[in-house]
Amino acid sequence: MKTYKRSETQTKILEAMDLVYERLIEFKKKSNSELVIMKDDKIVRIKAKSL
Fold this sequence. Notes:
The chain has one helix spanning 8-31; strands at 35-39, 42-46. 47% of the residues lie in helices and 20% in strands. It has a two-stranded antiparallel ribbon. The chain is an alpha+beta fold. The protein starts with 7 loop residues before the first helix and ends in a 5-residue tail after the last strand.
């Protein structure tokens, strides 16, 4: 199996995406709104209480 080393830029992008995800969940909980995702090629709505 091939090993791959991430560049500094790639690492920063992935860290930023994690932060955005955390903030999105926090925002959805505060505003008591649904999170809409795609799962198994279907659109799924998750209520804020379930997050």
